[in-house]
Amino acid sequence: MNNILVVDDEAIQRRVLASMIRRALPASQVWEANNGKAALELMHSQPMDVVFTDIRMPIMDGLDFIEKLKQSFTGVKIIILSGFRYFEYAQRAIQLGAYDYLLKPIKEESITEILARVRESIDRERARQLENERIKRQLTSTMSVYYDQLLRDWITHGIGGAKFQEMKEHFSLRARGTVLVSRLIGEELLIGQEDSASRVSSMMISRMESCLQQVGLSVSFFKEDKSHMITVLTYDGPGPALESLTELAHRFREQMLAQQGIVLTIGIGGPCGELSGRGRDSYREAVEAASFRYFLTADSVIPYSAIAGRIRSMHYDLLKEEEALKEAIRMMKSDLITATLDKLFSRLLEGGFPYPDQWLKSFLRMVYGIATVIKDLMEERKYKQLLSETESSLSRCADVLEFKDRLTAILLEFMNILRSNRSNLHESMIEKCIAYIDSHYMEDLSLELVAGRFFFSPNYLSSFFKNHLGMTFSKYLSHIRLKKAIELLKSTDMKVYEIASRVGFKDDKYFFRVFRGRFGLTPDEYRRNLLVEGKARE
């Protein structure tokens, strides 16, 4: 109780009462007025918590004063001052809404007692008011959550007729409509502190409804994950032209960018002739339209009708480019990586756009295949971590331009990993390569097969054989096979064609030709000479 007013035309009684109140409540401010009119004028400039007023006063008596006070002010506690002769007036005042009355002459202990009761009454009323406000806020919030969920259920998988009618009446929806989806680029803006996120969400809803009010009645709400705002625009008649709706969506987007720094892509679904059934279809179209900003990087508001005829499914057919990019990485040719990606992107985007999720899955599959180039050069844990980071990086791209830049950077990183490891390990890898040839010479080996087995380019492996062994890959392979053939000629009685097949020559005539070219004798002649030499030694 901060302000207390004493109203009495008798100055001495008024001042005595005011003094008693000041002693009882030193922290309160006590005001005085000599009649009801003066008291009302004072209260218009200085609100009061408690008023002590006499009944019989000139100009405006206590009863008139109480009536007017009740009309203009609420929550004021009125205490009547009355003598025994005017007790019936006190009763009338109670009927008008006075809190209590005091009989004159007034005793100080009576003042102390009644002020204590008034304070308790005010505290109880304020507590009830706070509780009522809390319950009201809770109820409002609960109802808001209920209807928001009802909207989400309807727009995503449908609701029954009774619930749709309830929702329609609550939001005053019209029969026809169009759904818009405002997709946030950088939705972390609405995942921060709860108060801030709620404020931004409310502002977006308010701005959108304000922009659309000239063409219809709209209701907006957010998807549970806050990734986009859904707006259902409803109207009577044919509805707004698509050009007008697109312009209004642009206006909303510009406002949010200028005022909050929020970047939006807005998809516009097709019109619904019958909102209850077609609303979900319009929502799906709006979501698809917004998602295709991934390819339409220059567009920020995209009607579904603008992309419907350009959507095509994407199936994995990147094996050719996968092998080409592997080879470019093995050859350390960054320009070839860039050129291959340029051609690939042009091919895939010519004449239409795939669904963004299909695009991402296809490219991730290609990248996983290319990554095998460096798999044996890394610990398994680090290799898996690299693939996980690669997938995360590509998945976060806002559009195809960013995707291409990140993909290029990832493949160049693969090349750098290979380069840094190759300088340290190529000698040992070549030794393993030679050992592999020495133990698999009898198989159908080729330069390309062996190079791929050890993640070298065929050109690199061919150059190494020439520079370090002084012969080509095929010469070395032939050398090993002939060496093994001589061992078999010496130690077995196998027929020559059997030896040729055993050491890797599929054509025995070619074996004869190669053997003669190397030793100047046929395999049979070589074996006979061995026998002659053996007998001579005996």
From TrEMBL:
<dbReference type="InterPro" id="IPR020449">
    <property type="entry name" value="Tscrpt_reg_AraC-type_HTH"/>
</dbReference>
<dbReference type="InterPro" id="IPR001789">
    <property type="entry name" value="Sig_transdc_resp-reg_receiver"/>
</dbReference>
<keyword id="KW-0238">DNA-binding</keyword>
<dbReference type="Pfam" id="PF12833">
    <property type="entry name" value="HTH_18"/>
</dbReference>
<keyword id="KW-0805">Transcription regulation</keyword>
<dbReference type="Pfam" id="PF00072">
    <property type="entry name" value="Response_reg"/>
</dbReference>
<dbReference type="InterPro" id="IPR009057">
    <property type="entry name" value="Homeodomain-like_sf"/>
</dbReference>
<keyword id="KW-0597">Phosphoprotein</keyword>
<protein>
    <submittedName>
        <fullName>Response regulator</fullName>
    </submittedName>
</protein>
<feature type="domain" description="HTH araC/xylS-type">
    <location>
        <begin position="431"/>
        <end position="529"/>
    </location>
</feature>
<feature type="modified residue" description="4-aspartylphosphate">
    <location>
        <position position="54"/>
    </location>
</feature>
<dbReference type="InterPro" id="IPR011006">
    <property type="entry name" value="CheY-like_superfamily"/>
</dbReference>
<dbReference type="InterPro" id="IPR018060">
    <property type="entry name" value="HTH_AraC"/>
</dbReference>
<keyword id="KW-0804">Transcription</keyword>
<feature type="domain" description="Response regulatory">
    <location>
        <begin position="3"/>
        <end position="119"/>
    </location>
</feature>
